[in-house]
């Protein structure tokens, strides 16, 4: 599945904050499935998968989840005809082991015979398998399904004991496994590297333009020296607009070239309230924790606890101060206030691009170009579908516009010419916006460069008014599917948002002022 495909599996409490009690959530570079706490209010399971790995929940396996006995989160990853089943299991410490083994045996019997991963906190010490019959029975159940443990050293160490109760069981041997020491839990992190033939999507290359004041000044200088004679000489508005964008795009590409990046890199920044000095203190705390594990003594334990408690208090105060100052800065902007609240609650913005779509026959579409084409057809058919319904509901003979426009106006409309001064004033009144249209020109960019193209834009608008023709290039828009709710693979659960060209907004405003 590519390395690393399974990023992390956790068996800790309160993971239900990911997405309610259970469900999935798209993140920047990973997808998550979570299984919340039961009525007993403890436990909770979570599984993170690299973006591009398609998965689905397996309720037929999760039915063996029994309250106070064991918790199970099961998913199936797929790529073409290849599948990989992953089960995350948590057994509470007080759960009766015979009952757990009986339920666990039924779970293993329902698994596939090929690629399977079973991992979690089993609360059975595998280090004493030769002394405890119940542990021996547990290992026998695993080996009967060709599931081999990837770890054979303690994963939980205290001052008085060392146990192996967490593990990752694999049908495909791990190429490497290692333990990572942590102090945020009394369980260590277990990492296993496994080579599977299940392929993920290659992270797509994303290109963007770097826009700043220096680049825009360079663009204005280039636009000032362009010869617009072909635009002024043309009497056809579409032809003149084509000549304009030919010159403008050449200058735009030269001043603001596209820079390619690859989506999905792991470059998450440190939390904004963590200063360099706090980061140094966190590293020092980790060193004290390693020293405590290597040389367990009351002195090392006391030193570590005092340092950890003091550092936790300082970090908590730094976080409180950061959000207090941030709330004061955004108090006058409701939009920024909600952005701050969502970041505090760890709510990711809704993604606008679905990873897969179901067509009318229930077939899954995964390729991005095919998804875009299918959604375009769906959105384009909505208008005609609504019109057909209205036409069907109207009485016969009332479908013609002349039945409700009894006295149509016979007078023509005259549009006064646009002046350069008027166009400059309109540019100042337009709302700021960084979202570029299909021609990649946002409102902010157009407002900055308007003095350099004011004369030619004035000519194009007047040419459109004289000919009574709205330019074809302004009839195109970049459509963003905005997710509403429910199933993400259903086109009807998306609302199309059209982002218009920054140039067309000026023409529309000029026309609006004359109506």
Report on this model:
- There is one protein chain.
- The protein has 515 residues and is an alpha+beta fold.
- It folds into three domains: 6-193, Endonuclease/exonuclease/phosphatase (Deoxyribonuclease I, Chain A), CATH 3.60.10; 290-344; 356-514, no CATH class.
- Helices cover 39% and strands 19% of the residues.
- It has a six-stranded mixed sheet. Strands 1-4-3-2 form a four-stranded antiparallel sheet, with no helix packed on it. Strands 10-11 form a two-stranded antiparallel sheet.
- The longest helix has 32 residues, at 298-329.
- The chain is elongated and about 100 Å long.
- The two termini are 60 Å apart.
Give the total of domains: 3
Low-pLDDT residue intervals, each spanning 5 or more residues: 1-30, 264-269
| N→C terminal distance | 60 Å
Strand content: 15-25%
Strand order of the largest sheet: 5-6-7-8-12-9
Name the structural class: alpha+beta
CATH fold node name of the largest domain: Deoxyribonuclease I, Chain A
Assembly type of the shown chains?
Answer: single chain
Spatial shape: elongated
Q: Please identify the top-level CATH class of the largest domain.
A: Alpha Beta
Could you write a compact summary of the structure shown?
Strand 10 and strand 11 form a beta hairpin.
What descriptive keywords fit this protein?
515 residues; alpha+beta; Deoxyribonuclease I, Chain A; 6-stranded mixed sheet; 13 helices; 20 strands; 39% helix; elongated
């Amino acid at each position: 599945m590519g390395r690393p495909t399974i990023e992390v599996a956790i068996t800790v409490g309160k993971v239900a904050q990911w997405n309610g009690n259970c469900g999935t959530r798209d993140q920047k570079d990973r997808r998550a499935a979570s299984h919340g706490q039961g009525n007993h209010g403890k436990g909770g399971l979570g599984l993170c998968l690299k973006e591009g790995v398609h998965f689905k929940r397996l309720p037929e396996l999760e039915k063996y989840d029994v309250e106070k006995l064991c918790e199970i989160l099961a998913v199936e990853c797929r790529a073409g005809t290849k599948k990989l089943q992953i089960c995350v299991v948590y057994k509470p410490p007080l759960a009766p082991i015979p009952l757990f083994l009986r339920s666990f045996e039924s779970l293993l019997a329902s698994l596939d015979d090929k690629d399977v991963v079973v991992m979690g906190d089993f609360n059975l010490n595998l280090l004493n398998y030769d002394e405890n019959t119940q542990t021996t029975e547990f290992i026998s159940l695993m080996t009967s399904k060709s599931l081999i443990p990837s770890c054979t050293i303690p994963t939980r160490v205290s001052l008085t004991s060392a146990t192996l109760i967490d593990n990752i069981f694999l049908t495909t041997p791990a190429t490497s496994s290692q333990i990572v020491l942590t102090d945020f839990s009394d369980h260590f992190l277990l990492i296993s590297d496994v080579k599977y033939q299940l392929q993920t999507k290659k992270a797509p290359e994303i290109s963007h333009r770097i826009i700043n004041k220096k680049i825009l000044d360079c663009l204005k200088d280039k636009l000032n020296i362009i010869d617009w004679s072909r635009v002024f000489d043309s009497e056809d508005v579409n032809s003149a607009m084509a000549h304009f964008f030919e010159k403008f795009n050449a200058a735009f590409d030269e001043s603001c070239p596209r820079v390619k990046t690859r989506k999905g890199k792991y470059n998450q920044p440190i939390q904004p309230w963590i200063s360099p000095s706090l980061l140094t203190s966190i590293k020092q705390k980790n060193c004290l924790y390693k020293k405590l594990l290597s040389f367990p003594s009351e002195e090392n334990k006391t030193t570590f606890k005092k340092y950890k408690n003091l550092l936790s208090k300082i970090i908590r105060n730094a976080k409180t101060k950061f959000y207090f100052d941030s709330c004061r800065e955004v108090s006058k902007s409701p939009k920024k206030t909600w952005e701050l609240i969502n970041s505090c609650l760890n709510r990711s913005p809704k993604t606008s691009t679905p990873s897969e779509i179901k067509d009318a026959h229930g077939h899954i579409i995964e390729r991005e170009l095919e998804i875009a084409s299918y959604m375009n057809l769906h959105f384009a058919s909505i208008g005609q579908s609504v019109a057909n319904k209205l036409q069907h509901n109207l009485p016969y003979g009332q479908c013609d516009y002349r039945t409700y426009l009894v006295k149509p106006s016979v007078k023509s409309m005259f549009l006064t010419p646009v002046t350069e001064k008027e166009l400059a004033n309109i540019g100042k009144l337009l709302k700021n916006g960084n979202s570029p249209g299909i021609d990649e020109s946002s409102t902010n960019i157009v407002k900055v460069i308007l003095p350099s193209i004011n004369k030619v834009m004035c000519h194009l608008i007047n040419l459109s008014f004289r000919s009574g023709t709205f330019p074809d290039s302004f009839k195109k828009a970049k459509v963003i599917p905005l997710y509403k709710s429910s199933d993400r693979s259903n086109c009807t659960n998306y609302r199309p948002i059209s982002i218009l060209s920054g140039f067309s907004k000026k023409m529309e405003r000029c026309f609006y002022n004359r109506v």
